Amino acid sequence: MESLSRGDISLPPGAWDSHVHIADEDKFPYHPLHPFRPKKADLDDLLAFQRSQGIAHSCLVAFSVYQNDNSSILDALRRLNGKGRAVVCIDPKTVTDAELRELHAAGARGIRLNFRTSSKRVDTETFERLLFEAAERIRPFGWVLQLYVSLDQIAQFAAVVPQLGVTVVIDHIGHPEPSKGPARLQEGYREFMELLKSGLVYTKLSGTYRFDDLPDLDSYVQEILATAPDRVVWASDWPHSGGVSRNPGGDRKKVQEYRKVDDRAWIARCKTWCRLAGGTEGNELVRKIWVDNPRSLWQYGEDSLLASDVEIRSVL
């Protein structure tokens, strides 16, 4: 890895962070069955983090401790006054069109399904059914379907992605498992690369501290960037939750501290990957993953809210 310099941490104007969480238990109580208790990290903390890193916009991602309660995200989006976007959690069977319209008007542009942190894996038939149920509800809104999966799980649903009729986003570059060796030798790798080549999915360059000991991490990331330069968005994964894995006893009362992550070093490392993958177009690749790609994915533009609302009313 080439040496890092001070200039490596500067971000282009209008930079996006496409995966952050907020938590404020005092104002927005966690779900009674929250699997862990994250420390407070509210919108003010997020905005301070953005300023410290040179980030202009963020996409808020629903925190699992809130399950399908999106009240904290709605509040944050309204306070951001159009400068942010969000990926929420819903129950496709019970959420109403009115609730979806309210979320859309505030800036929601997708829903997230978590198939990785559950202790019980679903079979392929169930997997596909859940994807189709979710896609049916969000298709009229033009939302994305964001999936938190392990690399091997991608093999379970890759074949049906072209049939969903929505854009799919894969969290944390597919989350390969270090214990299984190099990513290129793992189940799901081939399907993931094929989906990226097809343009049907985006992926987030984020959360690699969860698998930093992956044998071929550098080459794996560079291959993703070279394969799909228009389908990768950068994210910090702030505030770096430990999640269920760091609460093995299931104690819901103990407040969990966040992981210690060097965010500036993460930015520098990603810029190095862009230079190595992009060659003479490395700077263009930096702009794509921080600015152009997220603007497209999260439908961000001067008239995006108004235009999308008109489209939705004509469909529903």
From TrEMBL:
Gene3D superfamilies, alphabetically? Metal-dependent hydrolases (3.20.20.140)
Organism listed in the record: Byssochlamys spectabilis (strain No. 5 / NBRC 109023) (Paecilomyces variotii)
Output the InterPro entries linked to this UniProt entry.
Answer: Amidohydro-rel, Aro_Compnd_Degr_Hydrolases, Metal_Hydrolase
Domain Amidohydrolase-related as annotated: residue spans: 17-295
Q: Name one GO molecular function term.
A: hydrolase activity
PANTHER family, alphabetized? BARREL METAL-DEPENDENT HYDROLASE, PUTATIVE (AFU_ORTHOLOGUE AFUA_1G16240)-RELATED (PTHR35563:SF2)
* Protein's recorded name: Amidohydrolase-related domain-containing protein
